Amino acid sequence: MNDQWRPETIAVHTGVYKDKTFNSVTTPIYASSNFYFDRLGVTKGYDYSRTANPTRRALEENLAALEGGADAWATATGMAALTTMLMLFKTGDHIVTGHDIYGGTWRLLDTIAPRMGIDVSFVNMGDTSAVRAAIQKNTRAMLIETPSNPLLNLVDIAGMVSIARDSKLTVIVDNTFMTPLGQRPFELGADIIIHSTTKYLNGHSDVVGGAVISRTPELAAQVAALGNALGTGCSPFDAWLVLRGVKSLPQRMAAHTRNAIEVAHYLDGHPRVRRVYFPGLPGHPHHKLALSQMNGFGGMVSFELDTEQVVMDDFFGRLRLFLLAESLGGVESLAEQPWSMSHASMGEAARRASGITPETVRLSLGIEHPDDLIEDLRRGLEGE
Description:
The chain is of the alpha/beta class. The protein contains 14 helices and twelve strands. It has a seven-stranded mixed beta sheet, sandwiched between helices. A five-stranded mixed beta sheet has the order 8-9-12-11-10, with helices on one face. Helix 4 links the parallel strand 2 (about 95-100) and strand 3. Helix 1 (about 5-15) runs antiparallel to helix 2 (about 55-65).
C-alpha cells in the first residue's frame, strides 16, 4: 500500500490484486478449506482456512490500512469480533464500559463475561468522575462505543485514553457507527478498534461479519492467535462481499450523512416528536465534541415519538421506504423500536437506565433521496 493514498483510494485498491495468473481486477474468492505444501514445512503462506485464507487476508489488509492499524482479524460476525476481543482477558480481570451500548454487546458482557470470571462495570462514560471511580486494581480494559447505540451519546476518546493510561488499560473502541472515514480512534490513542462489518463497511445488507483491528503488531499477533484457536474467522465468500462493499464506502457515507442531517432537522421541528438524538444538531449536548472528534455526523438518527399524538404501530405501519427491521448501515433506510428489538436483551431496568424508552425510534438512513425519506416520515407521523 502507498502510505500517501487517501481513504477513497485505499478503499478501492488495498488487498485487491492477488491474482497473478489472470490479472483479475477484483480479489478472487479462494473457496478452499486447505492448501497443499510444496514440501514439508514449506507453503505459499496458507495451509488451512481457519488459520488464514487469501480472500480474508485481503479484507484484513484493506481494513487495517483504512483504520491506520498494524493488522486486522476479520470475523464471522460483529459479536465474534467482540468475543475474540474478550478472550484477551482472563479470570479475575475487570472491564469498564458504557451503560448505553448495543444490546448484543451488553448481553455478552453482562451474561457471558461473568461466567469466565471477568467483571464488567457499566457506567456513564460522559461522566469522567464516574469512569475514574469505576476503575479498580484489577481493571484491564476500557470498551468505548461512540456514538452510542441507539441514543447517539458521544464519548471523548482522547479524554478516556488519558484516564486509561494512568491505569495502563487497553482502550477498545467500537467504530461501527462512524467507520474509518468518520472517526480515527488510533489517532486519539486507542489500542483496538472493533467493527461489525455487517453495517456500513459492507453496506448492502447481504452479509454478517466483524473485524478486530490492532494498533500494534504485538496486539495483532495475540488477536490472530485467539481467532485461530476460537475459529472466529469469516468465510472467504463473506470476506469477498465486505471487500466489494468497502470500495464504495466513501460515497455511501456521504449520502448517509447528508440524509441524516436533513431528516434530523425535519424531525427536530415536528410537533409529534418529543426529542431528536443526533450529534449534528447544534442543540445536541455533545455537538462540540462531534465537531472536534468526528468527520461528519454519521448516518444514524434516533428520536422520541410523542405517543400521545401518534400510535407506535400506526407510525411503523404507514412507512413505505423505511423498513421495520434491525441492523443498520445498508443502502436502504430502516426504522426500529430498540425497546423491543435491538436492545430487548438488556432487560427493562438496564434499558431505562441507559435512557431507552418504548417511545424511542432508531433510524438508519440509507442512500435514497432525502425528500422522499422526509415525505415517508411525514406519512408515518401524520398519516396520508
